[in-house]
Amino acid sequence: MTESIRLNDGLLLPPVGFGTYKAESTAEAVRTAVECGYRLIDTASVYGNETEVGQGLESSGVNRGNLFVTSKVWRTDLGYNAAKKAFEASLKRLSLDYLDLYLIHWPANSRNFDDWADVNSETWCALEDLQQEGLIKSIGVSNFWPEHLEKLLKRARVVPAVNQLEFHPGYQQRIIIELCRQHNITVQAWSPLARGRLAEDEVLNVVASKYGKSVSQIILRWTVQQNIIPIPKSANSNRIKENIDIFDFELSAEDMSHISAIPQKGFSGERPDLWPDRQRT
Ligand SMILES: NC(=O)C1=CN([C@@H]2O[C@H](COP(=O)(O)OP(=O)(O)OC[C@H]3O[C@@H](n4cnc5c(N)ncnc54)[C@H](OP(=O)(O)O)[C@@H]3O)[C@@H](O)[C@H]2O)C=CC1
Ligand SMILES: O=C1CO[C@H](CO)[C@@H](O)[C@@H]1O
């Protein structure tokens, strides 16, 4: 792998991570991923697989200090006390004594809390305190749109190091990404492969043939060339390898632009302003 990404708090993260949502045989998938060179592993309490992620990391034999483990506080655990409790439970399930990165998975919003901005700030305060106690190296958010981030920043002691967002050529969320750049907040891309929804895209297939790479490799390379950290999930050892084998070529500026101009047609339908009424538009 090439260059790491330095977060605004100084922590260095690998340029590609490994997603574990719905990873079949999670422990084995995580061990394979670590064997293939992944060092950043993404999980969440809601995935129900933190115990298996911990087992996979343990069985990899790689020193804890060389691994970067992310988990997230779920929607039902927002608030100061609930978030602290959720963190402790995640840590225990993972069999770890600290996390590298802990995120608010989805923001509270005006549909589910009258005082949604306070709820997000109180949750954030719990993460700040846990970081201060040395239990988390870096703290961040996920699925925060400008309205959530701007309110949070007004009261935060610590600027989030990361905002993990849906991001792929078919859904580029440029407004929030630009705001993150302004605050030196690193973006991580969830569903970086759009769960296969872009596999038939003509531009991606033409570029893939030109470089002799797969469509997935082209998408991931396009992502890392923007200093955005993709966290692709696969439970298949060949695809796990393929998704990290993206550091022996570079997309030209012209091909980057072609991919960035793909119509926005791959959105998952999940938006931070809709929960809990509905998740799909
Ligand atoms: N913060 C948040 O709200 C969210 C975070 N996430 C995180 O992001 C991670 C990645 O996102 P995810 O939604 O899983 O989707 P991805 O975009 O990573 O796509 C995963 C799907 O693509 C397939 N796949 C993987 N690699 C390849 C390849 N090289 N060629 C063809 N198909 C491939 C996988 O199948 P197979 O396993 O068979 O290879 C799987 O079906 C999650 O696992 C999770 O950790 C995800 C959603 C929301
Ligand atoms: O992290 C996640 C995994 O995928 C789920 C379903 O798309 C999301 O809701 C959740 O945020």
Automatic annotation (TrEMBL):
> InterPro entries from the xrefs?
AKR, Aldo/ket_reductase_CS, NAD(P)_OxRdtase_dom_sf, NADP_OxRdtase_dom
Entry's Gene Ontology molecular function annotations? oxidoreductase activity, acting on the CH-OH group of donors, NAD or NADP as acceptor
Residue ranges of the TM segments: none
- Sites annotated Lowers pKa of active site Tyr: K72
- Give the record's keywords alphabetically: NADP, Oxidoreductase
Residues binding substrate: H105
Disordered: region residues: 262-281
Residue spans of biased composition, Basic and acidic residues class: 268-281
Q: Which residues form the active site?
A: Y47 (proton donor)
Q: Spell out the Pfam families in the cross-references.
A: Aldo_ket_red
Q: Where is the NADP-dependent oxidoreductase domain?
A: 20-262
Family, according to the entry, reads as follows:
Belongs to the aldo/keto reductase family.
Protein's name in the database: Aldo/keto reductase
Please tell me the species this chain comes from.
Marnyiella aurantia
